[in-house]
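User: My advisor asked me to double-check a structure prediction for Membrane carboxypeptidase (Penicillin-binding protein) before group meeting. I don't want to rely on an old file, so could you generate it fresh from this sequence?
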Amino acid sequence: MSNRPLVSAGRTLPLLRAGLIAGIVVAAVAYPLAAVTGIGAKATAHAVEQKTSILRTALPAETSYLYAPDGRTVLTMFYEEYRQYTKISDMSPNIQQAIVAAEDNRFYQHHGVDPKGVARAFVSNARSGGVSQGASTLTMQYVRMALRDSASTPKEVQEATQQTSLRKVKEMRMALDVEKELSKEQILERYLNSAYFGHRAYGIYAASQIFFSKIPATLTPVEAATLAGLVKSPSEYDPITSDQQDATGRRNYVLDRMSQLGYLSPDAAATAKAQPIQLKLTNPPNDCASIDKKYTTWGFYCDYLKNWWSGQPAFGVNRLERMDKLRRGGYRIVLAIDPKTQGAAEKNVGAKDSTGSPFANGIVVAEPGTGRIKAMAVNRNYSLDLSENGPNSNPEAGPNIKANYPNTVAPLLGGGSLAGYQAGSTFKMFPMLAALNSGMTLSTAYNSPYRYQSAIYNGWAPSNASGAMTGRQTMWSGFGKSVNTYFVQLEEHVGADKAVRLAEQLGLRWRTDVDRDHASPVKAKMWGAFTLGVSDATPLEMANAYAAVAADGRYCEAIPVNSILNRDGTPATYTTPGGVQREIAKPRCRQVVSADAARAATDAARCPTGDTPAKGSCGGWSTADSVRGTVGRPVAGKTGTTDSTRSAWFVGYTPELAAASFIADPDNPFNAVGDGQSQIPVNAVAETLRDALKGQPTRQFTPPSDQIVG
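Assistant: Sure, here is a fresh prediction for Membrane carboxypeptidase (Penicillin-binding protein) from the sequence you gave:
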């Protein structure tokens, strides 16, 4: 059935008569239609010209969807206004007819402003002594909503919605212009995608979902009339919170109007009016805390996505603007998380049965060559509910501050504002890479005493963890045994500032005042303790830095997505400083060290894991010799502990995956985890790599050249 009324609503008044009626109205009431064609035209012309182009193309805010890697499973949504733009061809004729019947029965006869409606409103308002009836057509209402949705300042929002004669003049003039540019079907489509129906439902798709759990194409006349009746006053006619008496009365009014306009037969209208309002409510998820219970362990990953998004200049000039884009831009975002790897990470996070413990054990898995983050897991629940959390372990926190366990939304794994945790000897990778990239060889040897006093670093005298490390060491044995005095001498040779700058090129950032001070150009040369990992780092940073070594020295920025599509289905892009347009979701990689230097570092990094390097000797023992047997394939990595074992780390990688795991107290970095728990990160990484790669062909590391072996 056509949407146009089968029963005539009257012939359109001639323009001259319209002007006369409007003139009368202007003289008496606040509906100055005459201003549209006369007195007010000059006053509003400039503003109208500015806004009309917006109205031709303006699209309302739209919900962004976050999908699992299959591109079909919706994990959650991001929105301020729950809305999904729907073409009119995908809407039931019932809702199109119902909204015309409820709001503007002469919609198909007028040209944006309805003279009969203005006259009717004048008579009604004159009798009541106030404003008891409006004269806004669907087109005028659309203009108002479009101006509201395209507003960029609170002042523009106020100007678009305030009840003033000037606003009404602009609205009428613009409605006439819009009807010259858009067809009735286009206006109706935009109206139904902009209207507010209550319960955060903006547009007909959201309303259909929230009230009836269906799509707009399947709305029945009863359902359509119920929704159309809400637009006038969503709170007054709300069928959810009220006893439905007012909602039913309003719905029946709409059904009667549909019958009078020929959209429904009298019998069909009577049958529809006899039915009760039957709702089937849906509460659409919003933000990371609303992820379906089946995927609640992905909350930390979702939170990482948000933090990553807020740092992307492609989405705006500042964090506020970028997050506004996420909640209003209608993006389709597919995560890069791998369900198999994520499941392995969740399963193998150590201390998982002690969520009442202040010690957090987490793991991040990155993909070499792309930077895509494949898994993030920690022995915490992603939840805003902290009511059952224990007391904070930091004595300076105060009695009313809850701990971050068992529930938290803090970015414990990285990607947010937290500084991270001291990463210990995992930092030895950076001076080793810098040395190899500068032309030094794996065979570079130093006599490494138990304690070494540095002549360069103002007499600083670090010692080894064990006297068994004393002796002449190479990069293989020095890295495998984690010999502090070897690496201090190596750092002296290559320059601490070179190691610091290389770590920055591999994605590390300094988030504490102390770290920023030591890493400054003035002081970096004297930061001898850098090689011992005194700086804070996050598992996200460390996993991705080591992934660059696995990728033959090619560093890729950490990225949480496989794809990002705009609301029109095209890939979201950004323009580089050089003027090149690129997809935001594509890997962003650059060569940081030579492939041969990275392969040489990997050869040395096989020693800590109990693996056998291609070219050299590990010196008889290593710090994590169980890893090779657990993973069951070539693997490299490095352990790390801090003073008094306040934190413990392990970063390991194969050619396919790189994983970093830590254990520490996020609330109190001085609360030592102790030597008894230092094996937990080692096991977490080894078991996660084993399980994630199960069934895949075994890949070998590429050996370094003889030249760099020395």
